Amino acid sequence: MLLTKGVRIIELFEPNFFGTVLNHNITVIENGPSGGLMIIDTGLPGYLNMIENGLKSFGYSIEDISDIVITHYHIDHSGNAEEIRKLSKAKVYAHELEVPYLSKNEQSFNLFYEDVKNELKVSKEEFESTLKRINSMEFTPVNVDVKLKGGEELGDFKVLHVPGHTQGHIALYNGEILIVGDAVKNVRGVISPPFRFFCWDYVKAVNSFKLLLSMRFKYLIPFHGDIVFNF
Ligand SMILES: [Zn+2]
Ligand SMILES: [Zn+2]
């Protein structure tokens, strides 16, 4: 889908996410800092073909990617980053605080049913099967070429450090478009901070959420849920 000039979204779907289907919005921007496409977040392991098909529908291929930005280390954002890096020779960018998690060859979430049930209507069976699915995925560690701190410019976009969901979570902003990863979600018409049970520090996550929503934007692109239009 073409959102606005030079900015496109590949929407992928993750079934069996605590009893619902979760969407993933991968943003593809022309004129990345290294001259080709800049892709923001990369979906779950095994989604590479779907990303390839999405790019093909725009007239592009994996090899056209020159820059890969990972908003945070979670597997649904970093899943295909290393494969894309190898195929395209693109540079990978992530906040320095995410690098230790991205370089491990395992990601495992230790969640508790009670915490998840407080925020989502989910049965014990759905909870267990989702956790098992997430924790059994094969994660390929990611080599980060450029470690960020926040404040850098990537093409037209500025890097914002918005901690809370994870320690080194980043967003990208060009004055019009705000790409927020998991710092904001917009699911079923409700704009909200990330799930508490998935947060490194929920108080910081809420502060980052408020900061992002207080900014001027035309398009806010969450990784999960619907794009927020604000004209
Ligand atoms: Zn996340
Ligand atoms: Zn996510």
TrEMBL record:
Would I find Hydrolase among this entry's keywords?
yes
Q: Where are the transmembrane segments?
A: none
Any one Pfam family here would be Lactamase_B
Q: Which GO terms describe its molecular function?
A: hydrolase activity
Instruction: Cite the Metallo-beta-lactamase domain residue spans from the record.
Output: 23-224
Keywords of the record:
Hydrolase
- Quote the PANTHER family the UniProt record gives: METALLO-BETA-LACTAMASE DOMAIN-CONTAINING, METALLO-BETA-LACTAMASE DOMAIN-CONTAINING PROTEIN
This chain belongs to the protein called MBL fold metallo-hydrolase
Q: Which organism is it from?
A: Stygiolobus azoricus
